[in-house]
Design a protein that fits this description.
Elements: H1 2-28, H2 32-60, H3 65-94
Helix pairs in contact: 1-2, 2-3
């Protein structure tokens, strides 16, 4: 159980760093296609981070009702960000330069 907890924690830290990195790159880019790709990557990273946070909330701790509701909200938001990022990434990859 401790190994899973450490893996999820490491995953959250890594995706947090990736989200920050892609956000910075998206804000600094001049070209719309590159900005869109970096924003899509940021959404994918953020969605993955929220899914991992929801797994931490739902699996690792005792099952109180409030904790399950917060975990479910994080899961829904994370899946929405993940799928929106994947959709936007494919859209911007097919876009002409």
């Amino acid at each position: 159980m401790a190994v899973i907890q450490w893996l999820l924690f490491a995953g959250v830290v890594i995706t947090l760093c990736l989200t920050t990195y892609f956000s910075y790159k998206a804000r600094r880019s001049q070209e719309a296609r590159v900005r869109g790709l970096n924003t899509a990557r940021m959404n994918i990273s953020m969605g993955t981070m929220l899914v991992m946070l929801s797994l931490i909330q739902m699996v690792m701790f005792s099952g109180s009702t409030v904790r399950m509701i917060v975990g479910a909200v994080f899961l829904v938001l994370g899946l929405f960000n993940l799928f929106a990022g994947i959709r936007n990434r494919t859209l911007f990859l097919t876009m002409k330069q």
